[in-house]
Amino acid sequence: MAKFELITVINAALVFDLSRSIDLHIIATGKTRERAVAGVTKGLIGAGESVTWQAEHLFKTRSFTSVITAFDFPRSFTDEMSKGDLKSFSHQPVFEKQGDGTLMKDTVML
């Protein structure tokens, strides 16, 4: 299993909600033309909810379904692949208030 971590300081306080925004994810992934095709397809995804994404990766249209399996507002959530062509995928962003901003630690396990 591979594990990746990214730590970012963001000059904003609403990062938790932005990170679970389907609409913002679509904007941020414009190059791969990601689109939400099932489950929660707009707005904010929450505990127990799922989204199925389709996108162009490695010359192929791929589908990936993710479920929010843990939800601790406003500190963290976990989304895990329930269907897709990866062996496994888990993503957990953790948010800590830091002055007027937010420290975000993203952990991805494949």
Report on this structure.
This protein has helices spanning 15-19, 22-28, and strands at 3-10, 35-39, 50-57, 60-72, 76-83, 90-98, 101-109. By secondary structure, the chain is mainly beta. It has a seven-stranded antiparallel β-sheet. A hairpin with a 2-residue loop joins strand 3 and strand 4 (60-72). It is globular. It starts with a strand and ends with a strand. 12% of the residues are buried.
Please describe the topology of this protein.
Elements: E1 3-10, H1 15-19, H2 22-28, E2 35-39, E3 50-57, E4 60-72, E5 76-83, E6 90-98, E7 101-109
Antiparallel strand pairs: 1-7, 2-3, 3-4, 4-5, 5-6, 6-7
Keywords:
single chain, 110 residues, mainly beta
Rg on CA atoms, Å: 14 Å
What can be said about the biggest beta sheet? 7 strands, antiparallel
Q: What is the overall silhouette?
A: globular
Strand residues, percent: over 45%
Number of helices: 2
* Low-pLDDT segments, ≥5 res: none
User: Approximately how much helix is present in the residues?
Assistant: 10-25%
What integer is the average pLDDT? 94
Q: Terminal Cα separation, in Å?
A: 6 Å
- According to DSSP, the number of beta strands is 7
One letter per element, helices H and strands E, the order comes to: EHHEEEEEE
Strand order of the largest sheet: 1-7-6-5-4-3-2
Structural classification? mainly beta
